[in-house]
Amino acid sequence: MVETLVELIKIPAISPDYGYEGEYDKAQKLLEIIKDWPFDKVEVYNAPDERAKNGVRPSILAYYYGEKGEEGPRLWILTHIDVVPPGDLSKWTVTEPFKPVVKDGKVYGRGSEDNGQSLVASLYAVRAMMNLGIRPKRTVILAFVSDEETGSKYGVEWLMREHPELFRKDDLVLVPDGGNEEGTFIEVAEKSILWLRVKVRGKQVHASMPDKGLNAHRVALDFAYHLDRLLHEKYGERDELFDPPESTFEPTMVRGPADSPNIVPGEHEVVFDCRILPRYSIDDILADAERLAGEVREKYRREFDGKVLPEIEFEVLQRMDAPEPTDPNSEIVLLLKEAIRRLRGKEAKVGGIGGGTFAAYFRKLGIPAVVWATLDETAHQPNEYARIKNMVEDAKVMAALALL
Q1: Contact 81, 13 (CB under 8 A)
Q2: For the domain bounded by 192-317, which CATH number is listed?
Q3: Which of 125, 130, 128, 114 is closest to 176 using CA atoms?
Q4: Cβ contacts of residue 86 below 8 Å, gap of 6+?
Q5: What is the rounded CA–CA span in Å between residue 60 and residue 99?
Q6: 195-247, pLDDT tens digit by residue?
Q7: Contact, 265 vs 202, CB < 8 A?
Q8: CA 120 to CA 105: how far, in whole Å?
Q9: Nearest CA to 105 among 396, 300, 387, 398?
Q10: CATH class for domain 2-190+322-403?
Q11: Catalytic (active-site) positions
């Protein structure tokens, strides 16, 4: 298991959205690893993306049939093969991001915990059954999918749109891409996600003569401050199912073209990452943002050569409207609780998160899905690692789910 994880970490699989080649090489390595394993069927689905290596974003489905064969009940275990960029390399003090190191019971490297740990756990949960000659109660479908980190447009979303025949309403779905250190948290609900870019245009001038222009930076600061305040006040209810229990609205990115202290910028951008309780409508939030933009436009309104400024525009970078939560009494939740109880002697609790996972796409189809794993939560951080014990113990739970 450790060797497999190390080999996969060595291959960067980063989205073209970040300027990289995508997942092709890592998918080929994974296919090479499992080529002699006795899966009943292995399928590759290539979502076209001209920016990526060989123009595709691959996803792999590997089937190990249960006692009743292809038509029997099925359990999906979905992991993603893409990873986020390494970030500030100076912060990586244990090893370089794609030169994995095994140390103190951990495997260090980018993508080790997110989502390599669970990917390898799912592989060897099935491999153990193969080695023992066991056919599980349920057919296990291992899905290794592209593009989770940047919205799933070329991953699960594409698969569901282009190949709806793959999915059945009575499927059980496990997404091992979230959890806690004890492995006792089962996620059954997610918040809506809105990534909103605000673009402000004014008029660039020399900073010694600001009256001859319109400072886009000042307009954007004013708008962002009041939008932040409006959203927190109007959409501030709490729901203890979630952690954190309230909607979050975080300004995360800013960008402007001014590269000198003495330039009044004519453009400014700010991005908000919004994680919204399901009771609230994304459309209402966008409408409030547009109304506020109108007020700010009037406040700073000036005309230059017949052109009215400032301009304030919105671009939705990502949107995911939260589906109905998975029923806490659904079969997949009860089976997972039982597996954790038998193998670990612990009672798992259910709840909701602010992050987005593959589970939301299944819930939209009316297929109950849960998110669960045992994680130290080092994802996206420098010195990311997977704890080997977690990988092994989670594989046992995955196998139990197929057998119970």
Answers
A1: yes
A2: 3.30.70.360
A3: 114
A4: 92, 97, 98, 110, 382
A5: 25
A6: 999 999 999 999 999 999 999 999 999 999 999 999 999 999 999 999 899 99
A7: yes
A8: 16
A9: 387
A10: alpha beta
A11: 82, 148
